[in-house]
Amino acid sequence: MRPLVIRSAIVAALGGLIFGFDTAVISGTIEALQREFELTAGGLGFTVATALIGTILGALTAGAPADRYGRKKMLFVIGALFVVGALGSALATSLVPFMIFRFLGGVGVGMASVCAPIYTAEISPAAHRGRLVGLVQFNIVLGILLAYLSNYLIRISFPADTAWRWMFGVMALPAILFLFLLLTVPETPRWLMSVGQDQRGAEIARRLCSTQAEFDLEIGELRASLAAAENAPSVPFFTAQHRRVILMAVAIAAFNQLSGINAILYYAPEVLQRAGASTNQAFLMSVAVGLMNLLATMAALTVIDRFGRRRLMLVGSIGYLISLGFLAAVMFYYEPVFTTTSSILVLVGLLVFIASHAFGQGAVIWVFISEIFPNRIRGRGQSLGSLTHWVFAAITSWAFPPVIVALGGGWAFSIFFVCMIGQLIWVLKVMPETKGVPLEEMEEQLGTSHWRTSV
Fold this sequence. Notes:
This protein has 21 helices and no strands.
C-alpha cells in the first residue's frame, strides 16, 4: 500500500476520532452544566440534544456541498466547525451561546459522519478499501474512549468549577492538528473526474495505486461508477418496489437508538453516580465502558464477514435483553438507597450492554444499510438511514434525564428493554442475511431489481 494512501486514510480517520470525541465528551460535564446554567432535567436533556439536532442538519446538508466543492474542502469546513464548537463551548458564559456552539459542533459531527467515510472510500484502491473505511469506524469508537479518559484526567486535575470548560476546550487540539494534516493529502480522484478534471484525477489515482494493473482497475471502476451515478437522480426513491428496503433501513436505524446507546454514552457517569459511585469512581468506570466499546468493535470487525450480519444482530439483541433486564432489576432493587455494590453491578450491566451493542448493532447498521439498497438509490438510502439514526438519537438523549427523574432508572432501562424485544423479533422475522450475496442477487432477493412509479 502506498504511503500516500495510508496518510490520507489516517487523516480522514482523525476526523472520525474527533467525531467520536465530540459525541461522548459531554458525558463528563452533565453535573457542571446543571449547576452552571441552573438546568431542570428537561432543560438538561434539550441542552444535550442540541448537538444532536446540529448533527441531523449536518448529515442532511453535507452531501450537496461535498459534491459541488469537493471532499477535501468539506473536511476543512468540518475541522473548522470542530475548533469553533470546542472553543466556543468552553468559553461560553451563558446557556444560549453554549447551545449555539454545541449545535455548530454537532453540525461538524453530522458532516463528518458523511464525508469522512466517503473521502476514505474514494482515496483507497479497491483492494484495501474495506479495511481503510473500517478505520474510520474504529477511530470513532477510539474517540469515545479518549473522551472518557480525557474527562477523567481533567476531573482529577482541575477545580470542579472550571474542569468542564477544559473538557470541551481540549478537543480543539486534535481538530487543529486535523486541519494542518489536511494540507498534506490530495482531493479524491473520483470527485475530480466527476467535475471534469480527468487528467488531475488520473494523476492522483496513479500516485495512490501500487501497480499499473491496480491503476487500470481503479480507473475502470471510477468511470463505471460515475456513469451509473449520472442516471441515479432520475430514479424515484419512494416506490412500491423500494418500500421493503426503506422500511428495513428505518427499522435498523431506529432500533439502534431505541436500545438507549447514545443516552447511555452521554449520561454514563451520571447513571453510575446515581447507582452509588463517587464522582471520580463514576468517571473512571466510564473509561472502562469506553474500553469495552473499543474491544468489542474490534472483535466484531474481524468476524462480521465470517459470521454474517444477522448472526451478529442476534447475539447483540440477546445481549441487549440480558444487560438491560439486569440493569433494570438492579435499579428497582436498590432504589432509592444505592451502595458501592449497586454501582459495581450497574458497571457490569453497562459493560455487557456496550459489548452487545458494539458486537451487534454498532458493527452491522451501516454495512447492512449500504448493502440492501440498489446502486441507483444507495446514496439516498444511506442518507435516510443516517437521518433516522440521528433523529432517534436526539429523541432518546432529550428524554432520558426527565424519564429518570420522573420514573427512576429501573423504568428507564425497562423502556429500552421492551424496545429491544421488538428488535429481536424484527431480526428473527424480517432481517435478511446479506453476507456474501452479490448485489444483483440481493436486488432479486429483496424485490428491488425493477422500479415502478412512486407511491
